[in-house]
Design brief:
ABC transporter involved in vitamin B12 uptake, BtuC; 4% strand; membrane; ABC_transp_permease; transmembrane; cell membrane; transmembrane transporter activity
Length: 342
Amino acid sequence: MTTTTPPTTAAQQFALRRHSPLQRVQHLLHAHPAISPFLVLVISFVVFSTLNPRFASPNSLSLVLQQVAVIGALAVGQTLIILTAGIDLSVGAVAILAMMLAAKLAEGQGLPGALAIALAIAVGAAAGALNGALVTRLKLPPFIVTLGTLSVFTALGLLYSEGQSVQATDLPAVLSWTGESFPVGRFRITVGVVAVVLLYLAVGFALAKTAWGRHVYAVGDDKEAARLAGIRVDRVLLSVYVVAGAIYGITAWILIGRAGAASPNAITDANLESITAVVIGGTSLFGGRGAVLGTLLGALIVGFFRSGLSLAGVDDQYRVLAVGLLVILAVAVDQWIRKVRS
């Protein structure tokens, strides 16, 4: 299995000393995938602050954090799936379906807010279980499975909601609680941002400190080797899709607070944006290497580029172009890092 710690044996250290500076950088980035996005984040902050000092203001940075909260949350689940060498194109559709079911039942049937949140999480987990079952039982490629369920979940959300939005004022207060903000020094942070941070901490701990997390990395690195090592590959894969789906359900709650409404037409670009955050964050599309810390940095990078280029007066289409180039560069760097030799 690909490790995420630097070489510690005397033989490995001796081998590194024989490498060129570029090879040492390659080894370093292979061992610590979060370094690349961290450097990009720092450089982008310096550049955009120089172009427009307003970018570094507490109000501007607070707004960036609030804007990336939803995509950042979806990207946590996407990271888990990509770590297993899969991909999920249905992330936004699952979150919308969970949100509309919870909102409509809370509005029309008087479902208590806490139960509505639990329902959203359960719906997300069920959708993830369906994706996981199709991947593990029918052995269908994750790309094809989630491309199909993207349409299924989108249609179900639109049919159930009849294409109509539900305003937060018509919902129990707890459903829009994630949109409430509070001061932290000179910054204003929403409850949704705090929820996303807690989500990253929980998933990061699970990946780094539990047997389940080690199995996720092993399955993503080499499924056959993991199976020979006694890991129940299909069970691990199914659990990853279920956990990711539950995270999408939590994101539905965060989205209601952020948008101030439950709309079936929200986050239309969520699927690609979540993948963008994961890829820019240093997680390999081939599985087995990466971390949620990198994904968090990737989401912030996307937010920085959009806010920074906007404040610099750059046309919106060029902002999209810049993010696209970042994705291509990130994948190219990942390919180079994968060629590391001991």
